[in-house]
Specification:
- It is a single chain.
- The chain is α+β, with helices and mostly antiparallel strands.
- It has a single domain (49-185), classed as Nuclear Transport Factor 2, Chain: A, CATH 3.10.450.
- The chain has helices at 3-27, 49-72, 87-102; strands at 105-108, 112-121, 130-139, 144-147, 150-152, 161-170, 178-185.
- Strand 2 (112-121) and strand 3 form a beta hairpin.
- The chain starts with a helix and ends in a 7-residue tail after the last strand.
C-alpha cells in the first residue's frame, strides 16, 4: 500500500473507532432523572453537648447576675433581664421586679451556681422549641434582703441551696444564642 493510502486507511479507521464509541454511549440507558428535591441538611446548633452546656450556663449566669443587679437597684431597670430571658419569663421577672420596687425591697450580695447538669439536649431544635433542659443548683445564702433601710428576715426555707429546672430556647431570629425560657424550682430529686 502506498503511504497516502495507509494514511487514508488510518484516518478512516480512527473515524470509525470514534463513531463506534459514540454509538455505544448513545445506546446506554439514560440515568433516571429524579423529581425529588434534595433533602436539606440540618446544621447542628452546637458542635457538641459540652459546647451547648457551656452556652446554656453562660446564659443562666447572665440571667442570674442581671436579676441580682435589678433587685439590688430596688427593682428598677428590669428590662435588662430581656437580654437573657425569653418573652414570658422576662415578663414574669419584670413583674416580680415591679413588686420589689412597690414594696421598697432591695438585695445585697450574690448567689452562686453550685452545679449545672444537662438533663436533655435537642441539637436540631428550632427557635420555637426547647433546645436544652438543665438542672441548676443555686446557693443564695449570701443574699441579704432589705426593706427600706432595715434588713428583712427571710422566711425559713428560703435561704440556701435550691435546684431549678432551666429550659433554654433559641433567641428569635438568631442561630445559636440561647434564651432562658423557663426557670422553676425543681421538686424532684435535686442536684444540690
Amino acid at each position: 500500500m502506498p503511504p497516502s493510502t495507509r494514511t487514508y486507511v488510518a484516518k478512516v479507521g480512527t473515524i470509525l473507532l470514534v463513531l463506534g464509541c459514540l454509538s455505544l454511549t448513545s445506546c446506554a440507558p439514560d440515568e433516571p432523572v429524579s423529581d425529588a428535591k434534595p433533602t436539606p441538611t440540618v446544621t447542628p446548633l452546637f458542635a457538641s453537648e459540652e459546647e451547648a452546656l457551656e452556652a446554656a450556663r453562660a446564659t443562666y449566669e447572665g440571667f442570674l447576675r442581671t436579676t441580682e443587679i435589678v433587685l439590688a437597684d430596688g427593682g428598677e431597670g428590669a428590662e435588662r433581664i430581656d437580654e437573657f430571658a425569653a418573652d414570658s419569663l422576662a415578663a414574669s421577672e419584670r413583674e416580680g421586679a415591679q413588686g420589689f420596687q412597690d414594696e421598697n425591697f432591695r438585695i445585697e450580695g450574690n448567689s452562686s451556681i453550685v452545679a449545672f447538669e444537662l438533663q436533655r439536649f435537642s441539637p436540631e431544635a428550632h427557635s420555637d422549641t426547647t433546645v436544652i433542659v438543665a438542672y441548676v443548683c443555686v446557693d443564695d445564702s449570701n443574699i441579704r434582703v432589705f426593706k427600706s433601710d432595715s434588713e428583712f428576715d427571710r422566711p425559713p426555707g428560703t435561704v440556701g441551696q435550691s435546684t431549678y429546672e432551666a429550659n433554654f430556647s433559641l433567641a428569635s431570629g438568631e442561630t445559636n444564642r440561647l434564651m432562658l425560657s423557663k426557670n422553676e424550682i425543681w421538686n424532684g430529686e435535686g442536684i444540690c
